Amino acid sequence: MTxxxxxxxxxxxxxxxxxxRAVAALRRLLEHLEAVQVRSxxxxxxxxxxxxxxxxxxxxxxxxxxxxx
Length: 69
Prior knowledge:
Blueprint lengths: L1 H10 L4 H28 L4 H8 L3 H8 L3
Helix pairs in contact: 1-2, 3-4
């Protein structure tokens, strides 16, 4: 997890160029991790409603984002 820790630290850099690049990289990492966990939950038989509840979003939103993958 050092990459994520390094990115989080750089996100607070005083230089906006460094900070913004780190924020963008963290966003990509987060999207990847979310997709992995949603796929894992679905493979274990979780409903879209259960996944949505854990993510704090609507069932429709999570299904729209991941339902066709």
